[in-house]
From TrEMBL:
Designated name of the protein: CCHC-type domain-containing protein
Matches recorded under InterPro entries: ZCCHC3, Znf_CCHC, Znf_CCHC_sf
Compositionally skewed regions (Basic and acidic residues) per UniProt: 72-81
Cited PANTHER family: GAG-RELATED PROTEIN (PTHR22639), ZINC FINGER CCHC DOMAIN-CONTAINING PROTEIN 3 (PTHR22639:SF3)
Lineage, uppermost ranks: Eukaryota, Sar, Alveolata, Dinophyceae, Suessiales
Domain CCHC-type: 7-23, 28-44, 47-63
SUPFAM superfamilies from the UniProt entry: Retrovirus zinc finger-like domains
Organism of derivation: Cladocopium goreaui
Residue span of region Disordered: 72-130
BP terms from Gene Ontology: activation of innate immune response
A Pfam family the protein falls into: zf-CCHC
Xref: SMART domains: ZnF_C2HC
A GO MF label: double-stranded DNA binding
Comp. bias regions, Polar residues: 82-103
Signal peptide: none
Length: 193
């Protein structure tokens, strides 16, 4: 098998590899295929799109810069004459500024937590809430009897002890947080009893 001569991918020279090349590593230009610059900085590709001249870009074009400076000067003179005739400053641009809110207000609006809509209990939750309220009324009556000095039976005492469980149930938490009560039809009221 014959030995293959190595070709450098940096300088295109024969007899050595890119790792052993004397040239420093640069990205090669995709336009002129030489190392040391990219296509964006290629001297062959540099030309102005405004005046179509080579050797400079739109950023450095003297003709384009002069045109922009002239346009700025005419805009300044127009704004000065409109201020003088109206007697107010910034009248011409105020309408465009007022159309969109400032960025800070937009950001605040996006980051604010959404307020929950006024939600209502379902029919089942309403039935459960009415049952719990009835038990709480019974417990309040038992506590009033206890405060008067009467002794309660064991079952009645257990009911009084469970008051916190009834108050902390999910339906009562929803009612405390602002859920609306649900109107039950007459048929379901009869079934609930």
């Amino acid at each position: 098998m014959a030995a293959v001569e190595a070709v450098c991918s940096r300088c295109q020279g024969k007899g050595h590899r890119a790792a052993d090349c004397h040239l420093p590593f640069f990205r090669s230009c995709e336009y002129c295929k030489t190392a040391g610059h990219t296509a964006k900085e290629c001297p062959l590709l540099r030309h102005c799109t405004y005046c179509k001249c080579e050797g400079h870009t739109n950023r450095n074009c003297a003709k384009l810069l002069a045109k922009r400076a002239k346009a700025r000067a005419s805009d300044d003179s127009k704004s000065e004459t409109s201020e003088a005739s109206n007697g107010q400053s910034g009248v011409s641009t105020a309408s465009t500024w007022a159309s969109s809110p400032p960025k800070k207000q937009q950001w605040k609006r996006w980051t604010e937590p959404q307020k929950p809509r006024m939600q209502a209990l379902t029919e089942d939750e309403e039935k459960q809430a009415r049952k719990v309220e009835k038990k709480l009324r019974e417990i309040a009556a038992l506590e009033a009897r206890l405060a008067e000095g009467e002794t309660l039976e064991d079952l009645q005492q257990k009911k009084v002890d469970k008051k916190s469980e009834f108050e902390d149930c999910e339906v009562m938490r929803k009612l405390r947080s602002g859920y609306r009560r649900c109107e039950l039809p007459a048929k379901s009221l009869i079934e609930a009893k």
